[in-house]
Amino acid sequence: MKRFFLLIAISLFVFKYARAQKIDTLSITLENVKYPYPVKYFPISTEGQDIKMAYMDVAPTSAANGRTVILFHGKNFGGYYWGNVIKALASAGFRVLVPDQIGFGKSSKPFIHYSFHQMAFWNKKLMDTLGIQKASVLGHSMGGMLATRFALLYPDQTEKLLLENPIGLEDYKTFVPYQTTEQQYQTELKTTAESVRKYYQSSYFTYWKPEYETLVSVAGGVTFSADYPRWAKVAALTYTMIYEQPVVYEFQNLKVPTVLFIGKEDKTIVGKGLLSPDQQTLHGQYKFLGKQTAAKIPGAKIVEFDACGHIPHVEIPTEFLVALTGSL
After folding, report:
1. What is the CATH classification number for the domain harbouring 58?
2. What range does the record give for the signal peptide (predicted)?
3. 95 φ, ψ to 5°?
4. The pTM is what?
5. Total structural domains in the chain?
6. Interatomic CA distance for residues 224 and 327, integer angstroms
C-alpha cells in the first residue's frame, strides 16, 4: 500500500512539473508572447533562405508631427520590452517602427553569417518599403551598435542617433579571451531561467523588482523549447558578431546629431564570465565610458542617470522618457 501511495505521489509530482514546464515553455519565435502592438512581417531572402523580420508599426495617437522613430532592441530582448517607449512617442505625435532583428524575438532564426552591416541594410529596406525616408534611431545595448552602424551607412536617412546604454563602447576582443562560436554555443545551451535571473540581477539592474520577472520569463521560457538548440546557436552566432565587429573605432566618423542616455551603474561587458573579478573591475564602467564616448562623437550630448543600470527605459521609465522626448 505504501508503495502504491509513493507511486501516486511521484506521478503527481511529475505531472505538476511537466505542466509547469509546459506553461513556461515558449517557442523560439515567441508566438505565445503578447507584444504591446500588432506584429507584421517583412519577407527577406538571404543566403538561399526565405526568412521574415517581425516588426510593429505604430501610428501616432495624437496630432502627427510627420516624424518617425525606429527602435533597435538589445541582444537579450525583442520588441516586447519597448511598450512604454512606443506609447510615449506615439502620444507625442511620432510614428514608431519597432523591428525584431533577424535572429531575435518573433523573427526567423536562420543559420547565416550575422553582421551589423546586413542588419542595417535590412532595416533600411524595411523603411523604404514602408515609405519612411528618414527616422531618428534609438538603439539599446546591442541595438546601440546596430544604430551606430546604421547611422554610419545611412546618414541621410538618420535624423538623430539616440544611444541607450549601448554596448561596444570598448573593443571586447582586446581584453576578453577568444571563444569559438562552437564554444559559445555550448555555453548558451546551459542557459536556464535561474541563470538568466542571476545575470539580470547582477548586470542589468541596481535593485531587483518583481516586474522584471517578465523579462526573465521570456529569456528563460525558450530554454524549455525542443527548438532551443537553434536559439542557442543563433545566440552564439550573434555573440561572435558583437565580438568581431566593433564600432568603437568609428564614433568620430558619425555625421548625425547624437545623444547618449547612460545609466551610470551599468557594468555590462560582453564575455564578462570569461574575466577574473579583478579584470572585470577594469572594464564595463559606464560612468566613465559614457563620457569618453560622447567626447569622440562630434557635437554629441550625454544624459546620465544616477542609480540606474543597463536598461533605463525599464528601470527609471519616467526619467528616461522625459529625457528622450526632450532630446527629440
Report:
1. 3.40.50.1820
2. 1-20
3. -80, 140
4. 0.92
5. 1
6. 41
